[in-house]
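Working notes for the structural subgroup meeting. M.R. asked for a predicted model of this chain before we commit to crystallization trials. I am recording the input and output together here so anyone reviewing the notebook later can reproduce the run.

Input as submitted:
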Amino acid sequence: MSDYNEIISWLRLAQTEGIGAINFTKLINEYQTADKALQFLQSRGYLVGDAEDAEKEAETAERLDIHIILKKDSLYPARLLALRDAPPILYAKGQLNLLSASPVVAIVGSRNASLNGRQFTESIAFDLTERGVLIISGMARGIDAAAHIGALKAKDGHGATIAVLGTGVDKIYPPENRDLYMQIAEQGLLLSEMPLNSAALSGSFPRRNRIISGLSNGVLVTEASEKSGSLITARFAVEQKKTLFAVPGNPNDTRAAGPNRLLRSGAIWTETATDIINAINNADNCMQSINDKVLQQDLFTKPLDNLVKTVDIPKDPQNRIEELLSIEPADIDEVIRVSGLDTATVMMQILDLEMSGKIVRLPGNKIVLKTGK
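Returned structure, recorded in token form:
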């Protein structure tokens, strides 16, 4: 690890306006040290980062048991070094040894995931963890949370996982994932390139996705609409030459549209953990099956770039139950459990949805969204 003075210099350079990840690396390569780079910038009239602010950042990190990892440190993940815009500084809380773990699979998908999508994601994350694969995701609501939960449940409740945050490591976001945040800090690793106390801003989440993909051997998309932000992670996977996986879904379900299009473009058909493990063990051949040009032209058009405006902001919870449902039957008891709401509230929402003709009750205490909704 770097010494205190060097950390302060790197923090100051990172806090200098107009110095992003790429320019930061160019300056370090040119001037060898952050101190010399700061001197150069000051000589050119730049307002460089304040030393006192950097010292407060370092002190806060130490107090919260958050490690500041510089790109030059041995702890810095080797896979991220391959990125042109690799983060100069990472903030990490938890089990640092996970930064060098292998193999690693990223699991991403919709925030408004269906109950069945969450259950599948939790199950495959559990199975992969049991078989020695580290799961990484973004700790968002929906598919991300399910992936982390499945990994943590593995190995008799001692499974590990990495959560890459779009906020500062000291920020719990979304707030309903507080318990998950605390468990990952204990058993796994919380990671971010954002300075401490950074709030949830729309532009930070797509940038987070390049780290999620960058740390992985492959990316699995389990459930996502055609314009889901999860496809940004899929794009990074293709650009970074990672193996891309997708779970097939019912074509009448909009949340299956993203994975189904990925599959048509060459992503690996995934139903079980074995599908992923076999592909990772045969990664070179699997990558040949993905046509980069088709993926980029077919899926990653300019409208998707506008998703930098999207952020994991909670919606009015009044329709929360409807968001959990899909055209596949869901057990009402499971809906109650996953929703986190009391039984009376859930049953009232179900009654409202039934009366409005949006859902149908099925035998066996199950409900389903009407097709064509």
